[in-house]
């Protein structure tokens, strides 16, 4: 089994190449190599491997054809990663939402493709699911509340306005993850409950409109909506 140094030696040339040459093939190669590593190595190398993706995420235009692929690869990496850095978390979180919405235009959902929207939401889901307890606690802090509120608003608009059922479902699932419905630690759930109390009326109203607005809503939509409520 690889140790951390061996894993670093494997990942380093791939990450360097991706930083210099941002292509779909290079992203896929980094992702596949990272997924093959033992869990311990993934945890230790999270920030290093994520760096080239963060680097290019800041520079890509919303309309760039590689945005969706970047989100897909980053989501796959985050599923095996350990997000212990609040700086890492907050940077990715905000950059993802910048690519699909505009805080300066009343949180308007931008006219990007469904593929970009789906991959962006999946990326946020993986990011929050991989966060340590300390990062989650900071996410529920007062300084991050505006960004959290913006994220919830955008996800609710996607659930209400989008026609693609899969996008609606993962948007609601991601709200549940943001509320730490997947976490059992009381010091996290207590803080999550206190923070989400302010958002709950709007969330329940939006979800009720989702469920009542279309008689053809699938079983998955009812399940995820009722699970959160």
Question: Could you characterize the architecture of this molecule?
Answer:
This protein is mostly helical and 229 residues long. It contains twelve helices and two strands; from the N terminus they run αααααββααααααα. It has helices spanning 4-20, 24-35, 39-57, 67-80, 86-100, 114-129, 133-139, 145-161, 165-178, 186-196, 200-213, 219-228, and strands at residues 101-102, 108-109. The protein has a two-stranded antiparallel sheet. Helix 6 (114-129) packs parallel to helix 9 (165-178), helix 8 runs antiparallel to helix 9 (165-178) and helix 9 (165-178) runs parallel beside helix 12 (219-228). The longest helix is centred in the N-terminal third of the chain and has 19 residues, at 39-57. It is globular. It starts with a helix and ends with a helix. The mean pLDDT is 89.
């Amino acid at each position: 089994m690889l140790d951390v140094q061996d894993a670093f030696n494997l990942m380093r040339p791939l990450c360097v190449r991706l930083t210099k040459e941002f292509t779909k093939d290079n992203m896929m190669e980094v992702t596949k190599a990272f997924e093959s590593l033992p869990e311990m190595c993934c945890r230790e190398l999270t920030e290093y491997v994520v760096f080239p993706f963060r680097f290019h995420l800041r520079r890509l235009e919303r309309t760039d054809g590689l945005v969706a692929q970047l989100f897909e690869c980053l989501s796959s990496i985050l599923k095996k990663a350990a997000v212990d850095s609040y700086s890492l978390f907050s940077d990715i979180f905000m950059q993802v939402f910048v690519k699909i919405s505009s805080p300066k235009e009343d949180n308007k959902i931008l006219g990007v493709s469904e593929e970009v929207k789906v991959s962006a939401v999946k990326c946020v889901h993986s990011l929050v699911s991989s966060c340590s307890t300390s990062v989650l606690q900071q996410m529920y802090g007062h300084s991050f509340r505006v960004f959290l509120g913006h994220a919830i608003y955008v996800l609710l608009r996607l659930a209400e306005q989008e026609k693609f059922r899969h996008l609606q479902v993962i948007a609601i699932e991601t709200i549940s993850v943001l509320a730490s419905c997947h976490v059992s630690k009381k010091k996290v759930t207590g803080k999550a409950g206190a923070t989400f109390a302010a958002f709950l009326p709007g969330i329940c109203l939006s979800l009720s409109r989702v469920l009542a607005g279309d008689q053809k809503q699938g079983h998955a939509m009812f399940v995820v909506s009722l699970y959160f409520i």
